[in-house]
Amino acid sequence: MIEAVGPIKRKFAPWDDPTLKPFIRFENVTKRFGDFTAVDDLTLDIYEREFFALLGPSGCGKTTLMRMLAGFEQPTEGRILLDGKDLSGIPPYKRPVNMMFQSYALFPHMTVEGNIAFGLKQEGMDTSNINTRVAEMLELVKLEKFAKRKPHQLSGGQRQRVALARSLAKRPKVLLLDEPLGALDRKLREETQFELMDIQMELGMTFLIVTHDQEEAMTVSDRIAVMNHGVIAQIGTASEIYEQPASRYVADFVGDINLIDGTVSAVDDGVATLHCAGVDATIVAEAGPGEVAVGAEAGFAIRPEKVQISLEAPPAGTPNVLSGEVWDIGYLGDISVYRVRLPGGSIVKATVANLTRIVERPITWEDKVFLTWPADAGVILLK
Amino acid sequence: MNKTTSWFNVTSLVFGFAFLYVPILILVVYSFNASKLVTVWGGLSARWYVELMHDQAIIDAAWVTVRVGILSASFATVLGTMAALVLDRYLKFHGRALFSGMVYAPLVMPEVITGLSLLLLFVAIGFDRGFWAVVIAHTTLTMCFVAVVVQSRLVTLDRSLEEAALDLGCPPVKTFFLITLPLILPGVVAGWMLAFTLSLDDLVIASFNTGPGATTLPIKIYSMVRLGVTPEINAISTILISVIAVGVIVASVLSHRSQVEKERAERAVFLGG
């Protein structure tokens, strides 16, 4: 009985399908504000029904990129295509794109209903259809009881939902979300992230989210573009970006990372040997992208949760061992963070999941410890 | 803050308010004087108000003043609001500093100079002095005040509200009337009230540009006073003061209310999280 199993969940990866055309295409887009280059010769493809995140620190150009798609800014060079159509010269009020603003931008002189109906009225939809659609939207965001309220009579979380309902009401081809959850507290933000994913699946729209919160980007999106100074540092799925960072910048910006500097002393079939004079160790690991060659200045990058910490020395001949002294311990409830000081003075972080309700820690301050990791746990990245 | 009131504080308060309001108070009290002699108290009476109602010249002047006020305040509100929008919105155009300086300069310009320059202009272009000349002159005088009031309201307006309207398919002009104007309306109304009261009590600019049949109330009062102060003048001045006081109070209540609304909204955001 195959039916009982239900539909087989296929992996959603349109970017791997060379026959598919991108839905949104930024083509060599540059945006300058006077002397400042906000977006620098950027090319990016986003596919239909994709939940795509632009991630980066403030001032990296992610918001400018989104505002160009919405039509509030014009590219200085290059063009933006939506469904194969060039958007240049089309004003914001004629684009099939809607935006949810960071400040929500709810019209204070209109009710919740009035806000949601605003875009539909501009379309010239008739009243009965508007009422049906507004009711649908209120149900979607679970605000049926608040239809007649004004925005200032709502809590922050409720306002966020009204803003979402308003931007979805016109069924745009693309929904733009500008730091949509920035003003919510942590618990509510996590809940809303999953709701956003459900809504996107249900409506089958393309979502483009701008955020500086890497957890948010990793939770909600199919793919992430990490941006820095107007260019894309890396595009990939959350796990690609986390596990195979293309550069030190990405490794450092997304998640926590240990970086141990050294000089490449041998390269063999994608595996590099790094001589780290500072900590008196030799590390063998996968070579990251770029020209990792003998003599290059590079660094070994490894996530703290992949570092194993032990009081006992590993058997002689084990590769990739660092020894040091426990400098600091941070207890975070679910995990503990050990900051281990290496001989040269640099610090390596190792996190350990607290699986039992330990009363006494086996490892404590000033203990001499050994750090090891599986052979494929880290990557060697160029400086 | 020191809560006890010292004799010094009380004295300075009384003295200050006396300085400001005793002359006006005397005028108001004497407008109810029964005696024909201005300086002699002859008992309480409203006869000068009644007499005023029968003085066609004064009623005509009052009517001219009200019409000039309404028209010039309306023109000034439209122009001043447009100037405020340009000043607030188009930050990057060339000569913005010059433009904003030029909009605000009439605030500190001596009225004699404004009046005289307008007079010269009207003579040069062959525009007849009279009702419409006064309307135009008052529009010139008051539009910068409107611009200041409206602009202070505009700076507190979140620009993304207008962007949201555009994003939802509303063209720019419609966005102005559906979103921007309703939100800055308290400022626009306050600006209109201010312009109206300024026009109502202007003597200098009006007297430069007036002509036959366009005598405003301040001009009428001034010419009557030159023939001697009569109780009738006290009565009409009292009416004028009341109208202006009401206008100023309404304008300040409107702008105060918008301020309170804003604070309440901010508090709600803070409490709502």
UniProtKB/TrEMBL annotation, chain A:
Calcium in keyword set: no
GO cellular component, one term: ATP-binding cassette (ABC) transporter complex
Keywords per UniProt: ATP-binding, Cell inner membrane, Cell membrane, Membrane, Nucleotide-binding, Translocase, Transport
Reactions accelerated catalytically: ATP + H2O + polyamine-[polyamine-binding protein]Side 1 = ADP + phosphate + polyamineSide 2 + [polyamine-binding protein]Side 1
Transmembrane stretches, start-end: none
Record GO terms (molecular function): ABC-type putrescine transporter activity; ATP binding; ATP hydrolysis activity
Listed EC numbers: 7.6.2.11
Keyword hit for ATP-binding: yes
Top-tier EC class: translocase
A Pfam family hit: TOBE_2
Domain ABC transporter: 24-254
Function noted in UniProt: Part of the ABC transporter complex PotABCD involved in spermidine/putrescine import. Responsible for energy coupling to the transport system.
Family of this protein: Belongs to the ABC transporter superfamily. Spermidine/putrescine importer (TC 3.A.1.11.1) family.
PANTHER family documented for this protein: PUTRESCINE TRANSPORT ATP-BINDING PROTEIN POTG (PTHR42781:SF5), SPERMIDINE/PUTRESCINE IMPORT ATP-BINDING PROTEIN POTA (PTHR42781)
NCBIfam families: potA (TIGR01187)
Subunit structure: The complex is composed of two ATP-binding proteins (PotA), two transmembrane proteins (PotB and PotC) and a solute-binding protein (PotD).
Protein name, UniProt field: Spermidine/putrescine import ATP-binding protein PotA
Species of origin: Pleomorphomonas carboxyditropha
Gene name of the record: potA
TrEMBL record, chain B:
All residue ranges annotated as the ABC transmembrane type-1 domain in the record: 62-254
GO BP: transmembrane transport
Signal peptide start and end residues: none
Protein name as catalogued: Putrescine ABC transporter permease PotI
Membrane-spanning segments: 7-32, 70-91, 103-125, 131-155, 176-198, 233-254
Compartment annotation: Cell membrane
Entry keyword annotation includes Membrane: yes
Stored PROSITE patterns: ABC_TM1
Keyword Transport attributed: yes
SUPFAM superfamilies per the UniProt record, alphabetical: MetI-like
Organism listed in the record: Pleomorphomonas carboxyditropha
GO CC annotation terms, alphabetical: plasma membrane
Membrane topology: Multi-pass membrane protein
